[in-house]
Every structure is written in C-alpha cells, then in structure tokens.
Task: structure prediction
Amino acid sequence: MNILKVSILLFTILFIGSCTETKVEELKYIPTEIDIIPRPIIMEVADGFFEINSNTKIIGNSEMMNSINILRAYLSKGLKENIGDNGVGNTIIFLTDDELNNDEAYRIEVGKDVLSIKASSDKGAFYAIQTLRQIIPAEMENSTCKTNSLEVPYYKIYDSPRYEYRGFMLDVARHFYTVAEVKRVIDLLTIYKINTLHMHLTDDQGWRIEIKSWPALTLYGSTSSVNSERHGFYTQDEFLEIQAYALKHHIELIPEIDMPGHTNAALASYPILNCNGEAPELYTGVEVGFSSLCVAKDTTYAFINDVLREIAAITTGRYIHIGGDESHSTATADYITFINRVRKMVRDNGKEPIGWDEIANAEIEKGAIVQYWGDVKNAQLAAKKKARIIMSPADRIYLDIKYNDSTKLGLKWAGFNDVKDAYDWKVDNLVEGVYGDMIMGIEAPLWTETITSVDDIEYMMFPRIIGVAEIAWSDGGGRNWENYKVRLAKQKLRLEKLGVNFYKSDLVEWK
Ligand code: TNX
Result:
C-alpha cells in the first residue's frame, strides 16, 4: 500500500471514529420562535417538514447557478450523499420572481414536495440560502459526522433589506492580513447578509496595494506596520482574487486610498511627494494626523491620478474611497482644494468617490457619499448639502473600540462599545437632522492598531457585527435589545461550529 492509500484509510477511520460525538443524524430542529438574524420581514411556520436527502434535487434558473452551486456544496458537506440535479425525490427549486422590486429580496416557501426560493436575481437567491442556513441545524456548518437527511419546517418567508449599503471595513494598513485571512472574513460576513467590504489599503504605517507605475510604494512602503509586526501588500492579481471571491458572495469591494493625511508610507517611498523633497522614515507607531501629501505640487496629482487609474482598472465595484479623515497637517483651505480636485479625479476615472465625514467641508454636490464616523457637525453639514450618508458612529459600531474595561484588545478613545451599545440605537435618531432616505446604510469599521491575528479580528467583530448586520438589514419598528439578545444567544453553536473566536459578553445568556 502506498503512502497516499494509507493516509486515506487512516483519515477515513478517524473520520468515522469521531462520528460518535456529533450525531447530526439524530438531530431534529424544533422551531420555537423567529430566531434568524437579521430578522426577516415576514416569517410564518406551519406543522410539517420538507426532508432533504440524497434523492432531493436542486434545480432552477441558469441566472441563479452561482447560488444553486453554493447550496449544493453546503448541503453536500453534511449529507452522506452528494446532492445534485437528478434526484428522484422532492425538489428545491430556484425561480425568478420579477415582482420582487429589490434585487436582494427573496421568498422561501417550504411544502412537502417543493422548497422554493424566489428572487429577482442571484443576489436574492443567495440571501435566501443564508436564511435557510439558519433554519437547518448549526451542526451542518461543520459536521464530523454526515447525516442521511435533514428536515426543514414548513416556512414561508418574505424578506428584503432596509439599507442598500451594509458594510464592514478592514484596516489592512496598520497590520496586514493575507488573502486567505481576508477570505475567511468574507465567509463570516456572508452569513449575516453584509454586502460591502471596505478595505483601508493605505495609511501612515504601510502601503498595501501594488501600483505598477510607482513601484516603491510596495517595494519599500509596504515593509512597515504597527510595531513592525505584520507587514506586506497585495499584488494586483491578489486584489483581483479577493474581489472575485467577494463578488461570488455578493460582496462589493471598496478600496480606500486615504489622503491627503495618513500618507506617511507613500511619503517615505518617494521624496518627490514631499513639499521639502525629503522622505520621512517609515512609521511603526499609532499616532494620527502628522502626515500630508504636498497639496501645492503638480506631481502630487500626477501621482494620485496614476494610483486612481490603476485602482479603478482593477475594481469592479462602483466606488473608490479617498479617506480624507484627520488631515490635521493640511491647512483647511488646502484640504478643501485637495478634496474637490481628487473627488473629480475619481469620477474622471469612472468611479464614484466616498470620503470620511470631514469631506463635507469641501464642495460636495447633491448625492455625494459621506461616511459619518464622529463629527456630528460634519454629518449635519453633509445632510444640508443633500449628501448620502453612511453611518459608522465610532461610539457605537467601531469594532476596534473595547467592549468594556476588561477587554485586552482595542482602543477606548470613543468610550466602550459593548454588545448592547453596538445594537441598541436607532439609525434615524442618532444625529439630529440625519435620517430617512439620506442614510444610505451602515458600516462597522475595524481599525487594526491593536489587532494582530485573525483570532483578534474575530474577537472584535463577533458578536457585534451580527447586531450591526441586523440594524442594516432589518431595522424598523420592532427591533429591540431584549428580543435580540435571546436570538443572539442561539447563534453560539453556529459560531462554535464555524470556529469563530467570539466574545461571550455577560449581557447575553449564551445557550
Ligand atoms: C480614527 S475613523 C481614525 C483611524 C483610527 C481610528 C481608531 C477615522 C476615519 N480615522 O485612523 O484608526 O480612529 O479607532
């Protein structure tokens, strides 16, 4: 017997051997109350079950093939036999429903012979799968033991998101994360219907994206990080790989090139970008507000245009984020001139600019996108100028802020954001004058000054990101903390099965 066969045999024995622990086979899921997060708009359950087994076929529209394949793969992980399109038993069918007026909306109807998923696009179908995933046992997320069948209660669900923008931001500049690590984050975002991944690609501590026309940005500018702990960069091919993975999960990538401040890594890489022609040292600390591109130099704009052109060429999404925050070393008048000019340059490169709330002080037109993070006056100014506002209140949903005094990771400049703080707020009531349609959506940023591993990322994200996802998807009259915390407690097994390192806050009675 060769080594391969021996190891396969050994693996098989171990695999069967471990089956005594988790018996998915014996699992019956008894629905007690609505406990899907984010909570669907309408959800009814009746007596009876649709049984998924090896005879079940999954069929549907070719436009929904991406979702169909994802569901097949998901179910095949936990079922003894793979599930395909030529079973002779009952049917899971994906259908187009053009009456759904939002391409992320979906319906699920479960009966004895048919489980139907209806949507107007693959997006809606994909979110239906995420809901289905929470209806079937959590053991399916990671089963050491395979089951013959699964039962899905007779559910009728109609669902549609409140906000079109449901985001998470990862700062890969303070500390760098590999392609595989970012994919892991995408996998986890998917479950809770987050649809935007904003990547903070550049900052004082490092430049993390290859720009072919300015190679020193990565040859030199990527070699630093906070405490010199984790540096690196993505080649454009790697960026494309992350983006393709995100898109398959219906997540739009937003690259951020932060300017004119937060630019020490670029300034250190090219003396010519500095007003005095001298490059500063690379930076490994955590201060902010000390760097600025040279606003008066033509070279600066030639540089920015090259960067924007290359970024736009590899970005399939609609947006490029230009940062614009904490530019304390740029004179106000210069800042305004700079933002006006750079926003136009983004548009000339075929993308829509987004900026942190400080950009409201520049000449922004109706419909410009402003991301509120901390300055109420900026948010109100943006509202007055009829901007569209992304809500990222630092004192609620900054995921790098500590849960409480005993949290080892994180910062506390914005107070503490415990699980309840991150969930228990009303989007329309947070900033006076900022409400309704002017709010485009919600984004929870994770800055990584103190974060150095995926375990750390997960610990700060979870469970807060689950609450953020619900605010973004299902906010409305009925949402309240007392009800939410009971539903959140039930996510424990799923998070454990997924191997998520989450914070078990005392505020929640984990089941
Ligand atoms: C503020 S929020 C920043 C970041 C820091 C963060 C730490 C914003 C637009 N800028 O540079 O990493 O606080 O919480």
Q: What stands out?
A: The chain has a mean pLDDT of 92. Residues 298-314 form the longest helix (17 residues). The pocket of TNX is lined by residues 288, 325-326, 356, 373, 398, 400, 411, 447, 449 (CB under 6 Å). The CA atoms of residues 205 and 225 lie 5 Å apart.
